[in-house]
Amino acid sequence: MGTLSKLKLGQKFTLMLMVVFMGGILMSGVALSRLLNYTAQTELTNKALMLMETMNSVRQYTVDEVRPELEEESEAVFLPEIVPSYSAHRVFATLQSNENYEDFFYKEAVLDPTNPKDKADDFETSLISSFQRDASRDELHGFRPAPGGKLFYIARPIQIKQEACLTCHGSPDQAPKSMVSLYGSEHGFNWQLNEIVGTQVISVPAQTVFNTAKQSLLITLGVFTGVFAIAIFLVNFWLKRYVVRPINRMAATAEAVSTGDTKAEFIKWSDDEVGNLTDSFNRMRLSLQMAMQRLERHRRKRKGSQGAG
Fold it and tell me: What pLDDT is attached to residue 308?
């Protein structure tokens, strides 16, 4: 408190503004960080959902257009092009060549897949279980652990909604013989209509989410800091011109009056509180001047009466 009392008015005001500024930066930084993280997640979620809709369109196209054309040929030699998930993965691999999607990963994780590479891991199995427990739930998203760091994921259920899917995944006896010969008859069969057998998952490194939010946060705080720095400069300029300078002039005038110069006048520069203070000092100067004059007359009168006696 002793050090603070030694500071000049402008320095005290600047210090107060800095304390307010630091507190504002801290609170707004926390709030903005959360908001921007949420915004980044929402942006990536929308992009991932668009990709997922694209993959579903590719799957549907494969079922409706590609499979009927290649089904007979696939009896002799299995053609992966008739499999919707194969088409979706191939299209997604092409999308990854675009820099806007190079960090995204796509997987159709299945509990009991025909192709072992589509086998759901423990985390994906938990997602499938969530969809199976609540058939009305059509989406899950969040963060999941991974060897290379956390991943932000969007997941939707894979549900058997078309009879055409059971051509390959119903009874092994009815499946294309070339497919059974390639993958065997132990896995990926006996699925039922409307059964949830897996999940579509699109994921992106969590660091991408955090980096996007961090860049936005730094830009926002940078602008906020610049604006506040300009505000501090303007406030200090105004304070020095309209408060500190007039007070210093009044202090100099008061010093002159205190040494006997009662004609020194306090100059009024404004009609605000500082101007009112100037008027008060002028009235005090006039009162002091009148008092000094009365005192001087009284002294002279008294001296005159002593001389006459």
Answer: 57
